[in-house]
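### Sample
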Amino acid sequence: MEQNLPFDVDALLIFGKVVENRSLSKAAALLGMPKSTVSRRLAKLESDLGIKLLRKNTHQLTVTDLGEKVYGHAVNILAEANGVRALVEGSRREPRGELRVAIPVFVGIDYASRVGAAFLRHYPNSRLDIRLVDNMVDPIRDGFDVVFSTGPLQDSTLIARKVFSLELFLCASRQFVAGLSEPITEPAQLNTLPFIDFGFGGPRRLAVTGRHGRRELTPPVRARANNFQVCKQYILQGLGIGAMPTQIICTEELRDGSIVPVLPDWDLDSLDVHMIYPFELSFSTLISAFYETACEIIVENIART
């Protein structure tokens, strides 16, 4: 392994803190070092790399194009360093303290309660505050340590770790399908049929992929809910076609035939659920332990189904 790096890794992390705060003074205060030291370390880093990272004048500090790219690598190095720290600290002491967690209602009360109970059972010195939420939550702004969410990560000061993927499939009640004037054999037919939309995070574009490519669909939404249990009841009542996850909620209904697949040869995009938390908490043994527990319960859920 090459160890003679042409620059100081610590200086790279100092640079990352300056970029995040857009201020030498704020970065110095957070790092607990004099502003002059921060400035000197940055100048040495620029000299070692042979490039300009920052532009400074009396009013503002901006990052050069190359500086932005270097910052992207600095963020990854910090994440890896904190991961090593969490691994070492986790081996030395048992997680303790309180963890505040926001979980979307679509994930389900059963899953949230099982994860919470298993976490508290495994770690007797921990305390847990779980809130089921029905809107998008920001861990920093809303005061949570951990947030479960879907979709791409927009904030570079946060870390996202995938907990599980929901494999979705199109389905309807047996009575709804039997009452149609013709069988559903093509995706385009859905554009004229009532749709039950799973609505966490707002309306989404519906697309299916099959042997003949990808199709974008625009079915008329009859009802929308941010909980799969509610959507399932609408589907069971014959109110329309919807998308359901097999591994969490529809196993029994598929077995007894009250819910049947629609267009089984066409696949919906899976829904990835991530655990999101601030960079500064990336070394927390509590968060690492909660992540492992959340993954463990998903494995149990899949085994149950």
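Residues 94-164+272-303 form a domain with the D-Maltodextrin-Binding Protein; domain 2 fold (CATH 3.40.190.10). This sample (LysR family transcriptional regulator) is used throughout the tutorial notebook.
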